[in-house]
Design brief:
Leucine-rich repeat, LRR (right-handed beta-alpha superhelix); two-stranded parallel ribbon; 21% strand
């Protein structure tokens, strides 16, 4: 059998290896003399191992075997931090990637203790070639860096990242002037300063954020986005305007076309979603995920809250809304009132799709669809479906 792959140019072979983990790429060196040196020139280094001692040896072996002038396009580290970890090692690895003009950096530390707070990250936050930065499990405080200058970073993902205070988080955002995509999950602020505001991120297009502990402040910073996903909506606290008309004060989302709202509780405050729609004049796609936790009786207050909010949003702009997805739909009173409201005022609505997270027989589906089908619809082309 002819080995057609091995006769390909070295640049193509290196590109092929870039889709593998570094461990797999190194393993190809035993295939033939042609393959033996290829892994040393791969621009993607991807390390993941739950055994830290083995992980430590693998990372140093690969970095030392590479040509110092060989650039690194993507550098990913994922491991469990134990008591025998030396933060200096991580500092050396990160600096090696920065010195080789890294574009994409992912650092994920699944720690068994909090030694990760001692890692010096100054090299990361002054890397002028970085475009994508993803951090997981790192403690960030002012002494972690002297300044932040990330002029090319367009993607910033932060998960399980404790910040010493909100100001440190704000400093990180301001240090990414061309940021287009932000994702935050399980962000914690050790020093709770509730009046700290974040400036608007002018270039931002996509935001995937959690409301736990960040509350309303981050929402105002991302209000220029086109795509917005909000997790843990039940933690979203609103400010009253004092006028007695609109129960909540939301920022205006002038460019928003797609929004996903995720609730992690049994009873949902539908007035949040209803009030938010008032400030999304260009919204085309609405997705609501209800992550039911536990079981319980239908909460009458849910319906009361939703009904009270409807009069204040009847004049909101639903002219652009085309598609609505209600996931984990169970036909509750609040859910039904919300769906009925959308159909009544969604003049351009093309479809409303219901999904259930529990087995629902065809008869139950038909009954819920018939109930919604009897409601007034502004759009004659709106199609109801149950999946």
């Amino acid at each position: 059998m002819v080995d057609r792959i091995s006769i390909l140019p070295d640049t193509i072979l290196s590109h092929i290896l870039s889709f593998l983990s570094t461990k797999e790429a190194v393993a190809t060196s035993v295939l033939s003399k042609t393959w033996y040196p290829q892994w040393r020139s791969v621009s993607t280094l991807d390390f993941e191992d739950l055994n830290y001692s083995r992980f430590l040896h693998s990372v140093y072996r690969v970095i030392l075997a590479r040509d110092h002038n060989q650039p690194i396009h993507k550098f990913r580290l994922r491991f469990i931090a134990r008591h025998d970890i030396d933060a200096t090692d991580i500092y050396v690895w990160v600096n090696a990637a920065v010195q080789r003009r890294v574009h994409h950096l992912e650092l994920s530390i699944l720690y068994q203790f909090h030694l990760t707070r001692f890692i010096n990250l100054s090299a990361i936050f002054t890397c002028r070639t970085l475009v994508i930065l993803k951090l997981n499990g790192l403690f960030l405080k002012p002494c972690s860096f002297s300044s932040i200058d990330l002029p090319l970073v367009k993607v910033l993902h932060l998960e399980c990242v404790p910040f010493a205070e909100r100001g440190v988080f704000g400093q990180l955002l301001y240090g990414c002037p061309v940021l287009e995509d932000i994702k935050t999950k399980s962000i914690v602020f050790i020093n709770q300063i509730t009046d700290r505001k974040f400036g608007i991120l002018p270039k931002l297009v996509r935001a995937d954020i959690s409301m736990y502990n960040t509350n309303f402040l981050l929402v105002e910073a991302v209000k220029n986005v086109e795509f917005l996903r909000i997790h843990e909506m039940e933690h979203m606290h609103h400010r009253h305007d004092g006028g007695g008309k609109d129960p909540f004060v939301f920022p205006e989302f002038p460019n928003l076309t797609h929004i996903e709202l995720i609730y992690n509780c049994y009873v949902y405050d539908w007035s949040q979603a209803v009030g938010l729609l008032k400030h999304c004049p260009k919204l085309q796609v609405l997705v609501i995920n209800q992550l039911h936790i536990g079981e319980g009786l239908e909460d009458k207050e849910e319906l009361v809250r939703a009904r009270k909010s409807f009069p204040y949003v009847r004049k909101c702009n639903l002219l652009c809304l085309q598609k609505v997805y209600l996931n984990d739909y169970r036909g509750g009173k609040g859910e039904f009132q919300f769906a009925r409201y959308i159909m009544r005022y969604g003049r351009s609505l093309e479809s409303m799709t219901l999904c259930s997270d529990i087995p629902v027989n065809e008869q139950e589906k038909l009954k819920m669809l018939e109930k919604l089908s009897s409601c007034t619809r502004s759009s004659a082309t709106c199609k109801l479906s149950f999946k």
